[in-house]
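Fold it.
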Amino acid sequence: MGSRTPQQKGTKVRAAALADCDAISVVHVETWRTIYRGLLPDAILDALSAPARADM
């Protein structure tokens, strides 16, 4: 079996829209907290804010 592209699995890839901003910021913050926990100080990770990130 060959590898499948996202289209073959039924996933659609599109450019992000302004309406996606809040959801993307949540994913960004939660990903950083998960990946960098133990590598960066907890205070830095705990201070991350999805709403603040969405405003960037």
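The first helix runs from residue 21 to 36.
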